[in-house]
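Batch manifest, entry 17 of 40.
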Amino acid sequence: MDMKQLAEDVIAGNRRALARAITLVESGRDDHRAQAIELMDMIGKSGRQALRIGLSGTPGVGKSTFIESFGMMLIKEGLKVAVLAVDPSSSRSGGSILGDKTRMELLSREKNAFIRPSPAKSELGGVARRTREAVGLCEAAGYDLILIETVGVGQSETVVSEMSDLFLLLLAPAGGDELQGVKRGIMEMADLILVNKADGDLKSAAQRTCADYAGALRLIRKRPQDPKDFPKAMTVSAIEDRGLREAWEEMNTLTDWRRVHGFFDKRRSEQAEYWFGQDIRHGLLSQLEKEPLKSMIAELAHQVAQGEITPGHAAADVLKALQQG
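Output type: structure tokens
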């Protein structure tokens, strides 16, 4: 594969080339990894920058419906939208349904939209290991906004906040102790909490839920990267396209404030440093899957299981072998 030609095609906005490039960076093969690094070096020179928005929410909250309605609204404004939707993978087979594209029927037909479902595999937070590089490829291809949809709600969702400029938490109307079900960690990361399905019989419940979360946000310690009144909670109806424009205006307000006060570029720099460390960790872990360490670990695991050696002693032997190798 000619990396220079592929990079040129991606920068020219060729959708087929973009799909091939993302497939390349997602590959676990060593030769593909080397090509992916070369490709990312080339496309990094494009200088293009998109607004990266991370989106998480409980299953059934309507993330796909929201993304489709929100994306269609932005496309009508002349923007190009990319969606990187990460599906959960089976821990047994490694398979993934990858059904997001079928749930975004209208958006998937738009020439100014690009939807890429990817399996989460074993990554914490449901973010595929190379999603960050897929974001860079979409930026180079000229997309103005990139939505990164992640799986579930939990503290491991911090991963998506390390590759996005804004983090949205989408929630459904509910009563009682629903607030207890959302981790404090993800509440502290959210820039906007959007209570979806604020329509029909659920409209009043959505307004009450929004008020509950607004109250909870006031109890969270103020973050330096936020202007007054942020983070905030709002109600939206993806199915009726209500509240989407107001939410988009709030996103722009927050982004503009962070750009003016230097927090936007500072955060991008911190994220680059974070992913440098993550790539080193992944590289070190991948060494454990190669011979002779792989066989050594299997033998030591057997000895640990038989009680012939302690787990700490066995781990020390592996680390010693890794240092010597």
